[in-house]
Design a protein that fits this description.
Elements (H helix, E strand, L loop, with lengths): L2 H20 L4 H8 L3 H8 L7 H10 L4 H6 L10 H12 L3
């Protein structure tokens, strides 16, 4: 991984955790909403493993961000009142649940 790629991936990982905490979600709650094990989400937040593009896109959409914003570490606020409902709907649509 070159330096720019590493920085973008690191920004994405930090974005997941920062946005989760900003919305007052536990690791377990967000993992449940995504349909993944909390250990998997923890690995993503620490950049020990990386989500598939489908999960990366689902996370970005749920947080009201573009993938570019999450990779670039932009700090754009979204309405957190609808977040939980949005992420469940997005995951259901993306993964046809």
């Amino acid at each position: 991984m070159n330096a720019n790629t590493y920085k973008a991936v690191d920004n994405f990982c930090r974005s997941i955790k920062n946005l989760r905490l900003e919305r007052g979600l536990t690791l377990e709650r967000l993992a449940e909403q995504l349909g993944v094990h909390c250990g998997t989400l923890s690995h993503w937040e620490r950049c020990e493993r990386y989500p598939s593009i489908d999960y990366a896109l689902a996370l970005a959409e749920a947080f009201g961000r573009s993938l570019d914003e999450m990779l670039g570490g932009c700090n754009v606020k979204v309405n957190s009142d609808e977040f939980e409902e949005r992420i469940v709907d997005i995951v259901k649509r993306r993964f046809k649940l």
